[in-house]
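User: Second chain of the day. Same drill as before.
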Amino acid sequence: MGQISRHGQIGDAEILMKVWDMLSGDVNLNWYEHVPVTEWDGVTLDTSGPRPRVTAVSLGNRQLSGRIPADLGRLTSLEWLNLGYNYLTGVIPPALGRLTKLKGLRLSFNQLTGTVPPALGRLSQLEELDLSGNKLKGVIPATLGGLANLQMLGLCQNGFSGVIPSELGGLVDLETLFISDTQVSGAIPVELDRLANLEVLDLSNNQLTGPIPASLRKQANLTVLELSNNKLTGAIPAELSRLSNLEELLLCGNQLAGKIPTSLCRLANLRLLDVALNQLSGEIPSELGKLPKLEEIEFYGNPKLTGEHPFDVS
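Assistant: Same format as last time:
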């Protein structure tokens, strides 16, 4: 590794070699001592300074197994870490909370267990955090609400318990929020109405209760509102008609009651409306059939609804 040391990169290289010793998988990965780090698969270096540093490790879908090495927390210039779509087991090392320059952390679709380390809330530069598709349990740490630069948060398909932290309302730059297919319960936090940049909100397939907050009308950029298969009660808020960019409104499989608001007929961009399997009553607004972009609409499983289906989509 003489060539590496001449460029002052021996420190990060040694860390990566330790990381590779703890993992197994893709035999085609060229992380060898006789190969310069500048040529290693999935590794990006910043050579602009006096001492080149590793800024990205991208090893998604490499059939990696083993545990995530805590030594990754020593790559203090790391901005991007992608280990998604592998077979990694064990816990998420709290040492990753030392990577204060990290902008993207993708550990999705592995077999990780344990809880989400609250230390990840220290990653103040983080823009993407995707932990979806693992076997994580425990509560969602409130410290994640301090990630002021976060644009994407993916926590779906895990075994979380407890409530959705109200602190997530502090993620003012957030554009996509996925907390579906977990076991979170309680009410939808009204603080989520502060997410003015949110485009996709998916809280489906949980144990959420209480009403749909009418204050969600403040999320003017929202294109997808997916709240299906919870235990939500009350009426469908008429205020949702103010979501002028909404394309998908998915509320099926809850305990919603009352009439379908005629104000939903103002959602000119709506493509999909699903209110099936609730306790809705009254007449189906015929004006829904006049929405110019509507492709699919579902009402079944609401025996108290009356009137004709606005149109039939096969």
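The longest strand covers residues 53-58.

User: Great, on to the next one.
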